[in-house]
Write a structure and sequence with these properties.
Radius of gyration: 21 Å
Order of helices and strands: HHEEE
Distance between the termini: 65 Å
CATH class: Alpha Beta
Number of strands: 3
Shape: elongated
Strand order of the largest sheet: 1-2-3
Helix content: 40-55%
Largest sheet: 3 strands, antiparallel
Amino acid sequence: MTLVEIMIVVIIMSLIATAVGMAVIPMIVRARIEQASTDAATIRGVAEMWLIENGTCPSMSELVDEGVLRDGTRTLDPWDSPWSLECERTSVHVTSAGPDRELGTEDDIPVEEG
C-alpha cells in the first residue's frame, strides 16, 4: 500500500462520515423538539391538577418536592434550560426556551392546548 492509497481511503471515509452526520443532526433536533413537547404536556397536566387542588400556580421545585411529578420526569427541557410555567385562572402554560435557550424567541416550544 502506498501513501496515496491510504489517503484516498481516509478521504472516502471522511466523506461518508460527513454525509451520515448531515443526515443524523436534523433528526436529533426534531427528536429533542418532540421530547420537549411531550415533557411540557406532562408537566402541564400535573401543574393543572396542582392549581385546581391548591389554588396557586406551582413552581417546578414545588412539584418535585411534593412528589407530584413521577420519578424520572425531567425537570429541565432537552437543552437543560428551566421550564417556564405561567398560570391564568385554571389554565397552565408550559414553555421550553428551545434550542437557543432564550425565552421569547421564535424557536420557543409551548405545549399545545387540549
